[in-house]
């Protein structure tokens, strides 16, 4: 969700830049199996998220692929259709990288997945997935292949591509379901080293301890470096069988003319005019250009992109670009009612949207399409940003009926409201007393929610479309506090006591308003207690007679629900934290038909 990006400050700008310019391009790693380029000194090295095809687009720039060697997860000779929008790739080109040139060709493309393993838990409120001990963050621009945000479950095996964050978390640009792989398949993660102990042969990635005593490191280890690991989780420790240092330096590669390095600054020495990205040092000078910032803005935790030029093996930082916060202004689904290929626009819900070279297109079969592939009456999901009064499409997905009618979210600026409806993204949505209303992550009454509304705020609404195009909502969410606050970034320890309003937080009525944080979590039960309580994802959950409980899609009583629970049972819970930090369940669901029973990765 939108606030999950805001709560992790180091995610700032991985997707878009300032002033309406978007940028996913960067080289922050040399993927496993990539050989140093062997072309002439005009070779350009780029790395970033695929935004389109025909042939391949990175950062809005097209690279033809007629003679390109494509390697996917170590397998050379792959076809172009093995690549998907959202994958982070490395690309080399022997052509001039002039942004105005449209005839650059790629000599090689390498995709190497960053994370792969079994989902341990999901926090849909924060937009976070726990996988192989790493917290993976997703948002409206993450591409889900073979699954979706709502259908993804604990126990599913996925592969992900994206960016390793300095705090050990991982931002996913691409997530693909991989349930066809055997359970014995090793898991792999990418992250930033902390607390390295060379004698004990351990370090941490985020909160996950890594034991690399059984691996031979490919590269010298140090804190703040980015690494990729393969192995298994045993007793809550990731035991690595393979360990690769992802080096973004280009020494002794004399044939490279230009390159880009993007990542999180881990150290700065202003006097020496050096900075470190993932623990690797780069020197800048008085001739270095700065974009969207200045030298005094360089600091640990800031995300930057470096443009590098090379001369006789020496690299020079020619430009430093400060990456700005990626903000999506809206998301909606609807039917296309008008198309204008010449203007590069289409209309949904009486609202006109415009595409550009950086719009990410995706078809219902997970393949790439373009604007001229769309037709009237197509069902689409659109994520957009408002720039100079126009709705610029960041991501567009054409959906089939199954995808379109499953539960989804509408987001956008509030343009009108009454006592029983709101209008956003060209869609008027009815409000009922049965829906959940969240104000700054706290559950409130319908009347309290309406009292806080003002035109121009961004509203999030969850629900379902029907065959008539109507949207029935079950949850409304409004955040009035500063979006850059990180008070919910830990996703699990906030008991709501900082709200300074405990007058109605009695913890007695799950169906009424509470002042505690509202959560949507899914995970395996770790303990079952008395009085209709159990523990999941570190939360003590309380079930009461007011809770809406489902067992394999059937409404059941609290007694029946608790009888179905034991250690390892996968449970999905929605509810509010009371002043004691107990999660009061408004809804809870168990699907015992899911037979993915391995739980030793918890």
In short, what is this structure?
This protein has 602 residues and is mostly beta strands. It folds into five domains: 33-111, OB fold (Dihydrolipoamide Acetyltransferase, E2P); 115-245, OB fold (Dihydrolipoamide Acetyltransferase, E2P) (Beta Barrel); 260-322, OB fold (Dihydrolipoamide Acetyltransferase, E2P) (Beta Barrel), CATH 2.40.50; 330-478, Beta Barrel (OB fold (Dihydrolipoamide Acetyltransferase, E2P)), CATH 2.40.50.320; 497-590, Nucleic acid-binding proteins (OB fold (Dihydrolipoamide Acetyltransferase, E2P)), CATH 2.40.50.
What does this structure look like?
It contains four helices and 45 strands. Strands 1, 2, 3, 4, 5, 6, 7, 20, 21, 22, 23, 24 and 25 form a 13-stranded mixed β-sheet that branches. It has five domains: 33-111, OB fold (Dihydrolipoamide Acetyltransferase, E2P); 115-245, Beta Barrel (OB fold (Dihydrolipoamide Acetyltransferase, E2P)), CATH 2.40.50.320; 260-322, OB fold (Dihydrolipoamide Acetyltransferase, E2P) (Beta Barrel), CATH 2.40.50.320; 330-478, Copper binding periplasmic protein CusF (OB fold (Dihydrolipoamide Acetyltransferase, E2P)), CATH 2.40.50; 497-590, OB fold (Dihydrolipoamide Acetyltransferase, E2P), CATH 2.40.50. It is globular. Strand 27 and strand 28 (351-354) form a beta hairpin. It is mostly beta strands and 602 residues long.
């Amino acid at each position: 969700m939108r606030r999950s990006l805001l709560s992790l400050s180091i995610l700032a700008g991985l997707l878009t830049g300032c002033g309406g310019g978007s940028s996913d391009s960067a080289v922050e790693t040399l993927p496993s199996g990539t050989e140093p380029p062997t072309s002439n000194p005009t070779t350009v090295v780029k790395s970033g998220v695929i935004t389109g095809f025909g042939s391949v687009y990175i950062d809005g720039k097209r690279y033809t692929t007629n003679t390109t060697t494509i390697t996917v997860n170590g397998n050379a000779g792959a076809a172009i259709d093995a690549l998907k929008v959202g994958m982070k790739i490395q690309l080399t080109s022997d052509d001039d990288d002039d942004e105005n040139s449209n005839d650059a060709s790629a000599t090689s493309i390498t995709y190497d997945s960053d994370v792969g393993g079994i989902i341990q838990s999901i926090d849909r409120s924060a937009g976070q997935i726990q996988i192989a001990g790493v917290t993976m963050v997703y948002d409206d621009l993450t591409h889900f292949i073979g699954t979706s945000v709502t259908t993804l479950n604990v126990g599913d095996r996925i592969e992900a591509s994206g960016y390793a964050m300095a705090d050990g978390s991982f931002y996913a640009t691409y997530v693909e379901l991989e349930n066809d792989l055997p359970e014995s398949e090793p898991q792999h993660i990418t992250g930033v080293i902390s607390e390295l102990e060379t004698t004990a042969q351990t370090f941490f990635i985020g909160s996950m301890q890594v034991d690399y005593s059984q691996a031979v490191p490919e590269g010298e280890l140090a804190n703040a470096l980015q690494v990729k690991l393969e192995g298994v989780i045993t007793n809550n420790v990731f035991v690595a069988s393979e360990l690769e240092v992802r080096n973004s330096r280009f020494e002794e590669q004399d044939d490279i003319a230009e390159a880009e390095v993007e990542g999180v600054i881990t150290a700065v020495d202003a006097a020496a005019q050096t900075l470190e990205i993932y623990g690797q040092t780069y020197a800048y000078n008085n001739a270095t250009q700065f974009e969207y910032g200045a030298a005094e803005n360089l600091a640990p935790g800031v995300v930057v992109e470096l443009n590098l030029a090379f001369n006789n093996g020496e690299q020079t930082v020619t430009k430093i670009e400060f990456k700005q916060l990626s903000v999506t202004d809206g998301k909606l689904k609807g039917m296309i009612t008008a198309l204008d290929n010449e203007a590069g626009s289409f209309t949904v819900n009486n609202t006109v949207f415009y595409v550009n070279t950086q719009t990410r297109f995706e078809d219902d079969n997970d393949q790439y399409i373009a604007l001229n592939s769309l037709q009237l009456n197509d069902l689409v999901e659109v994520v957009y940003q408002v720039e100079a009064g126009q709705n610029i499409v960041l991501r567009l997905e054409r959906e089939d009926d199954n995808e379109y009618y499953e539960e989804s979210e509408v987001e956008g600026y509030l343009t009108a409201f009454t006592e029983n409806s709101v209008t956003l993204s060209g869609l008027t949505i009815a409000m009922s007393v049965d829906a959940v209303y969240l104000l700054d992550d706290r559950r409130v009454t319908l009347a309290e929610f309406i009292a806080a509304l003002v035109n121009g705020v961004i509203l999030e609404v969850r629900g379902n479309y029907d065959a008539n195009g109507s949207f029935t909502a079950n949850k409304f969410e409004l955040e009035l506090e500063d979006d850059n606050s990180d008070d919910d970034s830990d996703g699990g320890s906030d008991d709501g006591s900082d709200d300074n309003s405990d007058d109605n937080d009695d913890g007695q009525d799950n169906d009424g308003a509470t002042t505690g944080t509202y959560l949507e979590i899914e995970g395996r039960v770790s303990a079952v207690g008395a009085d209709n309580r159990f523990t999941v994802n570190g939360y003590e959950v309380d079930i009461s007679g007011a809770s809406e409980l489902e067992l394999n899609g059937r409404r059941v009583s609290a007694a029946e629900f608790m009888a179905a629970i034991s250690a390892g049972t996968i449970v999905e819970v929605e509810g509010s934290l009371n002043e004691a930090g107990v999660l009061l369940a408004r809804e809870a669901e168990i699907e015992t038909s899911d037979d993915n029973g391995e739980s030793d990765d918890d």
